[in-house]
Amino acid sequence: MIPLRDTIPSATYPVVTQVLIALNVAVFLYEQSLGAAAERLIYAYGLVPRRFNGDVAAEIVPLFSSMFLHGGWMHLIGNMLYLHIFGDNVEDRVGHARFLMLYVIAGAVAGLAQVATNPGSVMPMVGASGAISGVTGAYLVFYPRSRIVTLVPVFIFLQVIEIPALVLLLFWFLYQLVLGISFYGADVGGVAFWAHIGGFVTGAVLGPILGAGRPRRPQPVW
């Protein structure tokens, strides 16, 4: 399933969301310009759990810089698509500065969750998915009745349907949880399931705290 857009328009321009997308794209283009040397950049600024456990102070920078590195075009495009779809509404709900705070904190907690569940890994963890998982967690709390226009394969055909955010995002979270438990402590194709879980839970908890006192937007009625 590939989400394409949601059905709730934003009342404000999502400046932070757009800046974050631009930063991620710019960093990835820089990675591409390095050629083979990009691997050294990823190892230096990606989050390596075993290295983090050895010297916490030295790994504070990679805890945050790893959020802006990506392993390939599909990795980048997938993450930016989710940020584009869900980020504007969450930013609209909590405000620009608080949205940035949610994004960064969720990304950091996501990284720590992966370190805690796979401390011996020497594979650098990179990508914005932990932070974006936090955004989707907050979105689910704020807009459970929103509908997500989604591209769904049906046998050999592709069908565009609207799926309630509650269904789509809970399914995604439970899928991450099942795989995270099934492959606990293992490097599975470079997918950081526990980073996704940690980020999502952080966003679901932190979103309402940061959004307290902010005006609420009307939601669709089921």
Key phrases:
single chain, 222 residues, mainly alpha, 3 strands, 9% strand, globular
Shape: globular
SSE order: EHHHHHHHEEHH
**Strand order within the widest sheet?**
1-2-3
The number of E-state strands comes to 3
Low-confidence stretches: none
* Major sheet: 3 strands, antiparallel
Overall mean confidence score, pLDDT: 90
Give the structural class.
mainly alpha
Figure out the total of helices.
9
Computed over alpha carbons, the radius of gyration is 17 Å
Into which percent range does the helicity of residues fall?
55-70%
Q: What percent strand?
A: 5-15%
Amino-to-carboxy terminus distance: 22 Å
Short description:
This protein is mainly α and 222 residues long. It has helices spanning 15-34, 38-45, 49-54, 60-65, 73-94, 96-117, 129-142, 165-182, 193-211; strands spanning 2-6, 147-154, 157-164.
Tell me what the structure shows.
Helices cover 61% and strands 9% of the residues. The protein has 222 residues and is mainly alpha-helical. Helix 5 (73-94) crosses helix 6. The protein has a three-stranded antiparallel β-sheet.
Write the layout of secondary structure elements.
Layout: E1 2-6, H1 15-34, H2 38-45, H3 49-54, H4 60-65, H5 73-94, H6 96-117, H7 129-142, E2 147-154, E3 157-164, H8 165-182, H9 193-211
Antiparallel strand pairs: 1-2, 2-3
Helix pairs in contact: 1-5, 5-6, 5-7, 6-7, 6-9, 7-8, 7-9, 8-9
